[in-house]
């Protein structure tokens, strides 16, 4: 990842392969655009939340925020996702679902929002199954899927973090799945107010992840303010796309700790913390939904979950609703003139 933040020898050596990758991506998009590849239009609005920078940029908190905003406004949102590690077939994510079957992020989304959530490699099939099972759903949010052009969309939201576009080059010379200037309806920047990362427009909508009061995995009703954790031997673990973001947020709360960065979607086991003598083990909610399904970890009194809540500009949701209305008018006008 560090090599992708500058145009050093590795990036330059990989540039010929990156140029081929870019050509293939553009060709695939053109085939959908010209109708040679089939795309499906659903009977409800579709909002894609994705990123062009490989790895985690904060999509899941934004999807949760969107679903909650729609619910509060009287809508009935549903969420579809690929589901990391999920089975090939379409699966509904219920409270009894295993993270190994449906993926940690979809399970967290379902838990936090209470909305219908379906996972599947084919997002069109997942969306159709969701609408068939939950006909009250009147807006669909896709967790990732910017490049899944088989599913037509009404709004595209591209999310960046403090890394911006890195060195600005496509894979494997750089971190980008697509060109940084690809079309989108909204650009969201998950970074501090004073952070100005490379390649991100100045008018990007700011998003910040606000830490909420940690709670015990064993007894979720039991909470502990970060101030009360100071002076204790703490192990902070993070199996997310950008672990350093989690560690930085804990440091900003004045905590000192031993950090353990894990692979994204890390699979925990009953013995994951056998060798740790920490008094407290802090983890993200994404990690916690998996640990809660392992009896030994679920009953480990040392484990505390640190939830985050997305904070966005006050008018952002209103702008999304306005965009949906514009899209609806365009569709109705198009069908009338046709």
Chart the SSEs and their pairings.
Blueprint: H1 9-33, E1 46-50, H2 59-72, E2 77-81, E3 91-92, H3 99-102, H4 104-113, E4 117-119, H5 123-133, E5 139-143, E6 155-161, E7 186-190, E8 205-211, E9 215-216, E10 234-238, H6 243-251, E11 258-261, E12 280-284, H7 285-291, H8 295-298, E13 303-306, E14 308-312, H9 316-337
Parallel strand pairs: 1-5, 1-6, 2-4, 2-5, 6-7, 7-8, 10-11, 10-12, 12-13
Antiparallel strand pairs: 3-4, 8-14, 9-13
Question: How would you explain this protein's 3D organization?
Answer:
A nine-stranded mixed sheet has the order 3-4-2-5-1-6-7-8-14, with helices on both faces. α2 (59-72) packs parallel to α4 (104-113) and α4 (104-113) packs across α7 (285-291). 31% of the residues lie in helices and 19% in strands. It is globular. The longest helix is centred in the N-terminal third of the chain and has 25 residues, at 9-33. α6 links the parallel β10 and β11 (258-261). The protein is of the alpha/beta class and 338 residues long.
* Helix and strand run: HEHEEHHEHEEEEEEHEEHHEEH
Nearest-integer average pLDDT: 93
Intertermini distance: 49 Å
Strand order of the largest sheet: 3-4-2-5-1-6-7-8-14
Share in β-strands: 15-25%
- Helix-strand category: alpha/beta
Uncertain residue segments = none
Taken from the alpha-carbon principal axes, the silhouette is: globular
Give a quick account of the main beta sheet: strands, pairing sense, barrel closure: 9 strands, mixed
Q: What is the number of helices?
A: 9
Number of strands: 14
**How much is the radius of gyration in Å?**
21 Å
- Helix % is 25-40%
